[in-house]
Automatic annotation (TrEMBL):
Protein name: Predicted outer membrane protein
Domain of life of the native organism: Bacteria
A Pfam cross-reference name: Gram_pos_anchor
Key word Signal present: yes
Keywords: Cell wall, Membrane, Peptidoglycan-anchor, Secreted, Signal, Transmembrane, Transmembrane helix
InterPro entries: Ig-like_fold, LPXTG_anchor, SpaA_PFL_dom_1
Keyword Transmembrane helix: yes
Residues annotated as domain Gram-positive cocci surface proteins LPxTG: 251-285
UniProt source species: Blautia obeum
Amino acid sequence: MEKDAHVIITNTLKVNLTVNKVWSDTEIKHSSIYAGLYKADGTALRSYVELSENNKYSDVFRNVSSSDLVYELRPVTVNENAEFTINNKGYVKVEANNIIVAKANNTDTKYKVSYGEKAVSEDGTMITQTITNTKIVTELNLIKVEKNNEKNLLKNAEFALYTANDDYTYEESNLVTDKIKTGSDGRATVNELVPGKYVLKETKAPDGYSLSANVWQVLVNDDQSVEVRLNGYKVDTEDGAFFIENIKLYSLPSTGGSGIYWYMIGGMVLMSAAAWILYKNKCREVLGK
């Protein structure tokens, strides 16, 4: 007995997939990046585009499956298998929220990568996917206080911040900013710090306090957290701000003040009395002879 044969034919919709690269720091020049095409299950399809200023960081994958995805690519590290080979170099995809290093104004800069939802045209034939690179920056908050008296907040302290080597050595030419100054609340903030190592020095002490010779070590992490150390020990914080201490100068009586006059007058009186007694004694000795 004959049976009917059923053949299932599946048609996959082919689309044009546009990929756009967006940088959070739009005002500066960036290096080009590669973006690769992947199946929905993460399998690389070996098709890639280069996004740069020349194409305004936008390009199109043509006649691809509507389920395909685009990922930013990064160079492989040790023991990684390349998913793409471009100009004899291996690359793999960057997962969401991972960090990559790209050139920004010719300086290595760290960015967090995120992927937007696909935007589909009304007829379903065009899809747009946006990849955003967000520059990793954070802030350093300081509180200037009197040593052993943290309630006494000190204004008008000034600091300089320098980029440092791995061992926290630094050059004066590596100045980041010397415009750090505490306000009436004793606080100062340095904005837009990128991950890395820095050193902090005091350049001007508050009135009535000695200039600190300390060099504070500052570490800005990829997760935007900040650590400050002095002589190997973590510096105390309050609400994310680091305490920086100054020693109060010893106060002497001011020159010409009323207090010193009394000391001078008293001394002169004593000296005069002693001279008078000596004179009278000499007179008695002479008369006795």
